[in-house]
Amino acid sequence: xxxxxxxxxxxxxxxxxxxxxxxxxxxxxxxxxxxxxxxxxxxxxxxxxxxxxxxxxxxxxxxxxxxxxxxxxxxxxxxxxxxxxxxxxxxxxxxxxxxxxxxxxxxxxxxxxxx
Length: 115
Prior knowledge:
- The chain is mostly helical.
- The chain is 77% helix and 5% strand.
- It has helices at 2-21, 30-46, 48-54, 56-61, 66-81, 90-111, and strands spanning 25-27, 85-87.
- It has a two-stranded antiparallel ribbon with strand order 1-2.
């Protein structure tokens, strides 16, 4: 349970950082960031595998680069669900998803994979 809460808080902090860095992404505050992190986690766990499966031919043709588009779509979908979390357009979603992925990798490399 502690690990889940730690992941949630770190993800919310990263969302706030991404919102500060990427024009077009706005998070209304800490509560919106926590809710957005929670919803993004559920969307990534439930919707993303289906989206990857449906876009598999396109992902193979683009050598996996289309997964960036899938990640952007998951970020945009989360923004549609969560009040106070806005992503205005596809390009901010793409840049935000890429930045969020890089930041998550950095945090995981600093903290360790099993946290």
